[in-house]
């Protein structure tokens, strides 16, 4: 079954920006997307029920309602969508997942921002660098937002890589944002760069990221258990950017 079921059909969106928050290296995409959802108090918009997603039910603190593990949130005023995932997508399921999401993106005329971390051992006091890639004619958005091109040859793996691959093959415009990230631990500082220098200018929004710095240690602790579950899932391939030499 491949389906995305909209539950908030009273929300109207016009060519929205979709920010993808699948678990990946440094959990940079998940941290950034969770921050958007919480800061903007985004509305639960739809259930992502693509083939290959683990069939589990999610519950949240203080709420009796059950939720699907992968879901969409919306902000009508900002024409913004955010994809939140509470489970890793396995390598085997990534192609079907990408086909499902890409078909829906195309039908809604959304501009997807796919996020990944690039393993990098940062020195204290340095700011992670951000790079942009694009399919279709969306490279101009990167130029307008002053986002640089990658400085080495590489590849994006995992479900985010599958999403970018499917967009390219289908002729669907998409943007891939790659940020230098801690390869071992959740990295709120890299998520802050994604938001400030990538997502904010492209989506035309202004989300405050001070909390990502002030609560960095707390965020790391909150996400650490999730990161450990990812490492223990043998069939899950984490989304991340890698220098191409790593495949040789």
Task: Give start-end ranges of low-pLDDT stretches.
Answer: none
Which structural class is indicated by helix and strand composition?
A: alpha/beta
Average the pLDDT over all residues and give the rounded result.
89
What series of H and E elements makes up the topology?
Answer: EEHEEEEEHEEHEHEHHHE
Number of helices: 7
Strand content: 15-25%
Count of extended strands: 12
Determine the N-to-C terminus distance.
36 Å
For CATH, the homologous superfamily is named as PAC-like subunit
CATH topology: Rossmann fold
Strand order of the largest sheet: 1-3-6-7-2-8-11-9
Overall description:
It is a single chain. It contains seven helices and twelve strands. With 248 residues, the chain is an alpha/beta fold. It has a single domain (4-247), classed as Rossmann fold (3-Layer(aba) Sandwich). A hairpin with a 6-residue loop joins β4 (58-59) and β5. α1 crosses α5 (188-203) and α2 (94-108) packs across α4.
Give the SSE map.
Elements: E1 4-6, E2 17-21, H1 28-39, E3 43-48, E4 58-59, E5 66-67, E6 70-75, E7 80-85, H2 94-108, E8 111-119, E9 130-135, H3 139-144, E10 154-156, H4 158-170, E11 174-181, H5 188-203, H6 210-214, H7 216-232, E12 241-243
Parallel strand pairs: 2-7, 2-8, 8-11
Antiparallel strand pairs: 1-3, 3-6, 4-5, 6-7, 9-11, 10-12
State the main characteristics.
single chain, 248 residues, Rossmann fold, eight-stranded mixed β-sheet, 7 helices, 12 strands, globular
């Amino acid at each position: 079954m491949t389906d995305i079921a909209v539950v908030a059909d009273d929300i109207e969106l016009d060519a929205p920006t979709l920010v993808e928050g699948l678990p990946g290296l440094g959990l940079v995409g998940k941290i950034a997307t969770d921050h958007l959802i919480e800061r903007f108090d985004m509305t639960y918009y739809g259930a992502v029920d693509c083939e290959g997603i683990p069939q589990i039910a999610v519950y949240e603190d203080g709420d009796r309602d059950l939720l699907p593990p992968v879901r969409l949130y919306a902000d009508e005023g900002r024409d913004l969508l955010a994809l939140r995932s509470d489970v890793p997508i396995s390598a085997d399921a990534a192609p079907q997942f990408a086909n499902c999401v890409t078909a829906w993106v195309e039908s809604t005329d959304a501009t997807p921002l796919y996020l990944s971390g690039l393993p990098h051992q940062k020195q204290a006091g340095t700011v992670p660098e951000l790079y942009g890639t694009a399919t279709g004619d969306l490279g101009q958005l990167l130029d307008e937002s002053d986002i640089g091109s990658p400085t080495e040859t590489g590849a994006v793996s995992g479900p985010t890589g599958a999403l970018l691959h499917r967009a390219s093959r289908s002729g669907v415009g998409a943007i891939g944002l790659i940020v230098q990230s801690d390869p071992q631990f959740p990295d709120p500082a890299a998520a802050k760069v994604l938001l400030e220098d990538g997502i904010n200018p492209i989506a035309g929004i202004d989300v405050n990221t001070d909390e990502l710095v002030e609560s960095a240690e707390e965020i790391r602790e909150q996400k650490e258990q999730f990161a450990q579950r990812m490492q223990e899932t043998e069939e899950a391939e984490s989304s991340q950017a890698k220098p191409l030499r790593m495949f040789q």
